[in-house]
């Protein structure tokens, strides 16, 4: 098997690693701005698939299939995002004789359409959040949409039918804001997923987001895994995920994993997928949606079960039987917690901070896993999601895992761009976070309560050390010889010039 | 050699002199208070410091220019602070914080693509009214009017790719 990875960034690197471990050759694809990207270097072969905008490269089914043909790849892993939940892509792979490492096109179409997935859950006897039963097509009138929202009851959430990762999703508190929210959600969904249809769902007051990872083989076996807790979200975008959830005891775990497996089985689901639930304060849970793909946060499950999900995706696609003890999959060993490191400036409202990375020192050491997608010298492009790495900490219990995460964050250096590392260092010191007392609204409320202070909390001593170091840095540059004496404050270009002269 | 160093907006005068014959020893004076520092360059942007008079305390810092603007960012234990050496700073892109009176230029705070232009020249606008939607890194960001007034001109149209700092709309 030779695997083409129809993706970029950290997930492409993650999949290449799994292929290497299984002895499989890999083919990367890249757009114009990703020529220097890490996944291009790490793969055995790499094929250019078009200009930087995703619709002209990573979303071009014809070019991806052609890249597989030209390189002799016979399997395709879609990663997450881009075409991962696009049934037409899965079909195109099948029609071209390629093994798609993921669910069948039918399962993607069924579970990838959120209203259809809700119907599957209801048939499997799993409760769902109130919402529209059918998607609102792009020609649905404003009046019709308003009537649907009124029927469900405010507050509602507008969600992209093809959505994920908080994209194409808008909260609506009042009827007057509905039209704009639908318009924005459609537009975002169109550019991120190539599909502008949306649907509406009631928003619960203080739910937790708890999800169940599944693997299904082609021989009728579906295995659910211990839950992941993903309630720490900023504007519906998960930023911290952990396993297990503090809100789930053994009995609830038994119920929720069984419900998840029932939904997957009734959909005839194969390969890796995740069923997301909202968990109410009273312990009742509701089916939210199914992600018919590998998830960003899959490493926390791998850390507490020692099962490599990407290996199993490939083995399942090759027709192997799931040889995993179901009891082991639902029994967490210790605690794992992940934070998503973004190229964003947390002190400027999380404004994207693309640009040239001048240095990276990823955290490492005991219990630490860094799934990174960037290298020093790479320019984080403006065209894609701004996540540059995932930092995962494992320890025997949650308290130690958080302490380890905190230690690792303080070690992590990314130079040249702003990142969310200072934000996470601040978050892991918040009392509610430490106590595990949070729901999906927690982080947005916490952020709204802040008054513009920097997330980088520095003492006078820290600032003085920075000042001394900056002066020493300037002194070293001034005395290092003629090539390094050019004034550096003129910008990184002058530094690049100095380095070129060395 | 004396440097004026601004960290998070606070200015300090820092004087660096070699201390005796030891190669890595410096006498560093910060606003009149002097101390010995054993300093070593590590990599392109790192400075490792030991403070022999403070129990050999260790401090490692990175001082690296931010991509684009030339602004320096100091990194210490995962946290960051804006650093200015000898007053050399560049103006930050983004006009969201300027005082909202007189003619206001609304500039792109980051590179991206204009998705929608919501106003036309001559339109009356309210303070905080969305003017332009710019997509960067797959999220749509609404840029709002800093003041109530009238749109003087619109410099971009939907589909335009913009650099950080590019003026999109002027409100008077």
Radius of gyration of chain A: 23 Å
Given as residue ranges, the uncertain stretches of chain A (5+ residues, pLDDT < 50) are: 483-502
Low-confidence spans of chain B: 90-99
- The whole-number mean of residue pLDDT values of chain A reads 92
Overall pLDDT score of chain B: 86
Shape of chain A: globular
The shape of chain B is elongated
Number of helices of chain B: 0
Kindly report how far apart the N and C termini of chain B lie.
47 Å
Structural account:
The complex is a heterodimer of chains A (502) and B (172). In chain A, helix 4 (87-95) runs antiparallel to helix 5 (105-112). Chain A has 5 domains: 3-101, Rossmann fold (3-Layer(aba) Sandwich), CATH 3.40.50.20; 130-202, Dna Ligase, domain 1; 205-333, D-amino Acid Aminotransferase, Chain A, domain 1; 335-457, D-amino Acid Aminotransferase, Chain A, domain 1 (2-Layer Sandwich), CATH 3.30.470.20; 460-501, no CATH class. In chain A, strands 9, 10, 11, 12, 13, 14, 15, 20 and 22 form a 9-stranded antiparallel β-sheet that branches. Helices cover 37% and strands 24% of the residues of chain A. Chain A has 18 helices and 23 strands. In chain A, strand 2, helix 2 and strand 3 (45-50) form a beta-alpha-beta unit. The model of chain A is unreliable at 483-502 (pLDDT under 50). With 502 residues, chain A is an alpha+beta fold. Chain B has 2 domains: 2-85; 104-171, RNA polymerase II/Efflux pump adaptor protein, barrel-sandwich hybrid domain (OB fold (Dihydrolipoamide Acetyltransferase, E2P)), CATH 2.40.50. Chain B is 0% helix and 56% strand. Chain B has an 8-stranded antiparallel beta barrel with strand order 1-2-3-4-5-6-7-8. A 4-stranded antiparallel β-sheet of chain B has the order 9-16-14-11, with no helix packed on it. In chain B, strands 13-12-10-15 form a 4-stranded antiparallel β-sheet, with no helix packed on it. Residues 90-99 of chain B have low confidence and may be disordered. Chains A and B meet through helix 8, strand 17, strand 18, helix 13 and helix 14 of A and strand 1, strand 2, strand 3, strand 4 and strand 6 of B.
């Amino acid at each position: 098997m030779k695997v083409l990875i129809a993706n970029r960034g950290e997930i492409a690197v993650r999949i290449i690693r799994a292929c290497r471990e299984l002895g499989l050759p890999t083919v990367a694809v890249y757009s114009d701005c990703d020529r220097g990207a890490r996944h291009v270097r790490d793969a055995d072969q790499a094929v250019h698939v078009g200009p930087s905008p995703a619709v002209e490269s990573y979303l071009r089914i014809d070019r991806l299939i052609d890249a597989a043909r030209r390189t002799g790849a016979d399997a395709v892993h879609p990663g997450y995002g881009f075409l991962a939940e696009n049934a037409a892509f899965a079909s195109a792979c099948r029609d071209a004789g390629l093994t798609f490492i993921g669910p069948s096109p039918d399962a993607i179409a069924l579970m990838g359409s959120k209203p259809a997935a809700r119907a599957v859950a209801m048939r499997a006897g799993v409760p769902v959040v109130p919402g529209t039963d059918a998607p609102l097509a792009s020609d649905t009138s404003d009046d019709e949409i308003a009537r649907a929202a009124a029927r469900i009851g405010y507050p509602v959430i507008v969600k992209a039918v093809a959505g994920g990762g908080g994209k194409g999703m808008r909260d609506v508190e009042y009827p007057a804001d509905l039209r704009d929210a639908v318009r924005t959600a459609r537009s975002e969904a169109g550019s991120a997923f190539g599909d502008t249809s949306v649907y509406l769902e009631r928003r619960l007051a203080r739910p937790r987001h708890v999800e169940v990872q599944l693997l299904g083989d082609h021989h009728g076996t579906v295995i659910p895994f211990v839950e992941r807790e993903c309630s720490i979200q900023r504007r519906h975008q998960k930023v911290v995920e952990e396993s297990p959830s503090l809100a789930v005891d053994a009995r609830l775990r038994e119920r929720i994993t069984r419900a998840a497996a029932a939904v997957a089985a009734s959909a005839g689901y194969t390969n890796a997928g995740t069923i997301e639930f909202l968990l109410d304060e009273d312990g009742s849970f509701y089916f939210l949606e199914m992600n018919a793909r590998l998830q960003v946060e899959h490493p926390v499950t791998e850390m507490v079960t020692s099962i490599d999900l990407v290996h199993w995706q490939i083995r399942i696609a090759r027709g192997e039987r799931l040889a995993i003890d179901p009891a082991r999959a639902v029994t967490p060993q210790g605690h794992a917690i992940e934070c998503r490191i973004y190229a964003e400036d947390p002190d400027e409202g999380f404004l994207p901070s693309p640009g040239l990375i001048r240095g990276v020192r990823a955290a490492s050491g005991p219990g630490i896993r860094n799934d990174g997608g960037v290298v020093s010298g790479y320019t984080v492009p403006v065209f894609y999601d701004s996540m540059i790495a995932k930092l995962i900490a494992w320890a025997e219990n949650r308290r130690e895992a958080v302490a380890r995460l905190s230690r690792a964050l303080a070690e992590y250096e990314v130079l040249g761009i702003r990142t969310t590392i200072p934000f996470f260092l601040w978050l892991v010191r918040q009392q509610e976070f430490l106590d595990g007392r949070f729901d999906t609204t927690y982080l947005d409320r916490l952020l709204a309560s802040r008054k513009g202070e920097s997330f980088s909390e520095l003492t006078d001593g820290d600032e003085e050390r920075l000042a001394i170091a900056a002066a020493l840095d300037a002194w070293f540059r001034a005395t290092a010889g003629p090539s390094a004496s050019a004034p550096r404050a003129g910008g990184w270009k002058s530094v690049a010039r100095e380095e070129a002269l060395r | 050699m004396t440097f004026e160093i601004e960290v998070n907006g606070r200015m300090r005068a820092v004087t660096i002199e070699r201390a005796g014959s030891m190669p890595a020893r410096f006498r560093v004076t910060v606003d009149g208070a002097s101390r010995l520092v054993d300093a070593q360059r590590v990599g392109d942007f790192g400075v490792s410091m030991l403070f022999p008079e403070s129990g050999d305390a260790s401090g490692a810092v990175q001082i690296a220019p931010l991509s684009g603007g030339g602004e320096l960012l100091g990194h210490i234990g995962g946290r960051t602070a804006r650093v200015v050496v000898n007053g050399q700073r560049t103006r930050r892109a983004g006009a969201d914080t300027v005082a909202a009176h007189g003619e206001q230029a609304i500039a792109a705070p980051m590179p991206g693509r204009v998705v929608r232009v919501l106003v036309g020249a001559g339109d009356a606008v309210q303070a905080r009214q969305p003017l332009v939607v710019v997509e960067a890194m797959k999220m749509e960001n609404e840029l709002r009017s800093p003041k109530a007034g009238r749109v003087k001109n619109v410099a971009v149209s939907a589909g335009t790719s913009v650099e950080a700092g590019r003026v999109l709309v002027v409100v008077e």
